[in-house]
Amino acid sequence: GVGKTTLIKKIHYELRQSGKFDQLIRVEAPRQVDAAFLRESIGKYLGLPNPESLGAADICSRLGGKSFVLLLDNLWQELKLADLGLSDGGLGAKRKIVFTTRLKSVCDNMEAHPVKVNVLKPQKARELFKSVTQEHIFDASPFVEDVVSECGGLPLA
């Protein structure tokens, strides 16, 4: 893709370094939204006992009064925050939810503020390709432009 997961990991790292939040949680969302699975994943991240049996109230209680960022990667469907113990009314300046999705409808349905991640321009794609290859390979290969073109501006592994 365009690097949504890499972006979430970078955000996680930067926020962890900043120390500005009491809790920082990063979770990979399943293809089919499953609130119980997400609560369990959040519970594990928070170090809660018996995370497989947590309810929304348990998460709400644990995060109550704390500043936090929940990073949800690869969301395919609308998610009801209340099902996770995070009601809209509880979110404020020090309580944020960031998610990645490839579907604009998910952003629309969740009333999110979308930030579009675009593909790389050809020059930036060449620079990225050069940065991850050995210079003599980059300079000597007649196929560099073909590879950059084939990737279509996506930072493919």
From TrEMBL:
The protein's name is: Putative NBS-LRR protein
What Gene Ontology terms describe what this protein does at the molecular function level? ADP binding
InterPro entries in the cross-refs: NB-ARC, P-loop_NTPase
Q: Which SUPFAM superfamilies does this UniProt record tie to the protein?
A: P-loop containing nucleoside triphosphate hydrolases
Q: Where is the NB-ARC domain?
A: 1-133
**What domain of life does the UniProt record list for this protein's source?**
Eukaryota
Q: Which Pfam families match?
A: NB-ARC (PF00931)
